[in-house]
Amino acid sequence: MTRQGLLAPQEILSPISASPATVTATVMGLPPRSAASTAKYKKLMTHLELHGIGSQNFASFESMKASSPTHLRSVPLLSTSHSESDDSDWNRRLPSVLSKFEEITEAAKGKKIVMFLDYDGTLSPIVDDPDSAFMSEAMRAAVKSVAKYFPTAIVSGRCRDKVFNFVQLSELYYAGSHGLDIKGPTKWPKHIKAKAKSVLCQPASSFLPMINEVYNLLLEKTKGIPGSKVENNRFCVSVHYRCVEEKRWNRLAEEVRSVLSGYPDLKLTQGRKVSNLEVPYNQEVSGFVWSEGIEREE
Ligand SMILES: O=P(O)(O)OC[C@H]1O[C@H](O[C@H]2O[C@H](CO)[C@@H](O)[C@H](O)[C@H]2O)[C@H](O)[C@@H](O)[C@@H]1O
């Protein structure tokens, strides 16, 4: 997911900035690419466009490499370990709330503030085993404090239940499967008088049988590739290659591509050492467009 700015009064920010682990919440999400990797990425995209290779076929060793910014794992808040020019464009467009706090609070005056947080690599550290990406108690307390003041949502590529199991805060909105599975709070902070009805929005539910089929196929096709892991994220299937030796990435990409070719309705996306086969949310799902679905539910 993308990085987000935490926008909160000082009393809320204090616990967040107290712990090095929580500090990443304000600056991490999608990494600023280095100039070299941006150039490499652009070159790859140009090559693919020239060869008429669309996103449906975009599972290759190169794309897996280009989309695996492991260097970010070790980039601490306000680090000087990578050059300023690498990050300047990113920071101009999406500045950290810590460096723009006054400007942001000024701009937010009179507006309704809603917090959108990523989970993996933001609220939790990136780890080898996706089932062990636990968040710290300090982070949980910080998110809980934020939710007392602002409607707060966690948006993730993971399935919603898994994110909830990690976070365990009933007062949040959870958007799983990159937004195709949204559930509102089941518990409301005491100071909120008008308790809204809990929202559940799953506009792509007609894709469930297809996704389960794809999950089983991928499990079968990848079982001979050591270190690979297939994760069922309900409206999305993720194929992890973090623990796969690089010499086997081509083979894994080939298997993903072969499964994808049988499902033209699905799209392929790349995350941090993970390829996702997912329902495109800009097409009509379950009879109506996703964004309209959200509006109707509100
Ligand atoms: O919500 P996103 O930012 O799009 O990321 C979704 C993926 O997150 C999880 O994978 C990532 O974190 C794992 C645990 O740290 C790590 O092992 C993996 O390499 C990362 O890609 C999740 O397991 C995936 O299913 C999601 O697609």
TrEMBL record:
This enzyme's EC code(s): 3.1.3.12
Family: Belongs to the trehalose phosphatase family.
Record protein name field: Trehalose 6-phosphate phosphatase
PANTHER family linked to this entry: TREHALOSE 6-PHOSPHATE PHOSPHATASE
Purpose of the protein: Removes the phosphate from trehalose 6-phosphate to produce free trehalose.
Co-factor requirement: a divalent metal cation
EC class name: hydrolase
Biological or metabolic pathway of the protein: Glycan biosynthesis; trehalose biosynthesis
GO biological process: trehalose biosynthetic process
An example Gene Ontology molecular-function term: trehalose-phosphatase activity
Gene assigned in the entry: TPP6
Name of a matching Pfam family: Trehalose_PPase
Keywords, sorted A to Z: Hydrolase
Reactions the enzyme catalyzes: alpha,alpha-trehalose 6-phosphate + H2O = alpha,alpha-trehalose + phosphate
Species annotation: Dendrobium catenatum
InterPro entries from the UniProt entry: HAD-like_sf, HAD_sf, OTSB-like, Trehalose_PPase
The keyword Hydrolase is annotated on this UniProt entry: yes
